[in-house]
Amino acid sequence: MNIxxxxxxxxxxxxxxxxxxxxxVTSFTTSPKPVTANAGDGHDHGEGEEHGEEGGAxxxxxxxxxxxxxTLVEAGPxxxxxxxxxxxxxxxxxxxxxxxxxxVSGIVTEVHKRLGEQVQxxxxxxxxxxxxxxxxxxxxxxxxxxxxxAATTLSREEGLWRKQVSxxxxxxxxxxxxxxxxxxxxxxxQRLTVLGLSPAEIAGLDKQPFSLGRLExxxxxxxxxxxxxxxxxxxxxxxxxxxxxxxxxxxxxxxPVYAADLPAVKEGQPVSLTGQGGRNVEGxxxxxxxxxxxxxxxxxxxxxxxxxxxxxRPGDFGSGTIQAGGEVADIAVPSSAxxxxxGETVVFVRNTEGFEPRVVEVxxxxxxxxxxxxxxxxxxxxxxxxxxxxxxxxxxxxxAHSHAH
Length: 405
Hints:
Elements: H1 12-20, E1 33-34, E2 51-54, E3 57-60, H2 62-67, E4 71-74, E5 76-79, E6 82-92, E7 97-101, E8 106-111, E9 118-119, E10 124-129, H3 131-162, H4 168-194, H5 199-203, E11 214-218, E12 223-228, E13 235-236, E14 241-246, E15 250-258, E16 270-275, E17 280-287, E18 298-306, E19 317-324, E20 328-334, E21 339-341, E22 344-350, E23 354-359, E24 361-365, E25 369-374, E26 381-384, H6 387-404
């Protein structure tokens, strides 16, 4: 089969041929749709004449095209982005993770959550028995009572002073004592807050008969326990990290990008990642590294990935591409439309008989889109999806043609 390159200019006869095809046009900028049996080639083929090859054309009617799941797209303008190959490690989203740290020393008496367990805000992670906390609670209760007594004394002295029964100095002394007691109470309440007690727990201290040293350490967010450093009976010091909780509905992936590619990477660019088992996910760049690692010469680029199905876990590895920005090509087709035939790159163009293999020259390309610099006109329809069937048909016709000669 002799495959020739088409000239850049299109003649009147070619336009007439395109119009005569009678095939509904699917724009390349939209999702390609399978050709229906009614979007035919204008010829009534018998059931035994669905396809064949003669004179460079692949004879195939609309019904066969539909059964073969071959789709048509219209060649036209499309952005051709640059794909930057990357490999990365999945980590927890730092904006959706907390490290639960003790604010007071004590002995672990209860552990309520295990690694991997889901928690809700306010769930108790562990219970601590702390002498320091008991002292702080006792100081608060003492300040609470002193404040109540000082307030009562102030009220009595003010009444007596206004009735001129007692001296003004007694009233002023009582007022100063009441103000001091209120300040002390506020300070002891603030200390309990810093040590991890909630306002409700503080308010109920003088009403509920439980150990003053008991501290319930709670989760501040909903998520999954991804770290635990607490064992029952263990004596833990203040500032000890005991639990890590992360909301894994969204995760990050850290992608080292080398200095040569870094200028092309911008926040908001799409990222495609494939993990173990062929898992695929789409994300967006949210941060680009401001410094380079002196050992690797790469910067840390971070992308956010949707993980509502929980497939990705911190520590997973993945490889993929960052779709860096690119200019719009005047004529572009899906990369899946390209095939190699007789050592040349071809696309299969729809015509009245079926398809013709057309030699093209390819400019910029990535895994999704290819720019056509010669051999194709805007608006022409090309096959995409299962184009290897057309390649096999064209190769069979070529072999038969060579054998006949």
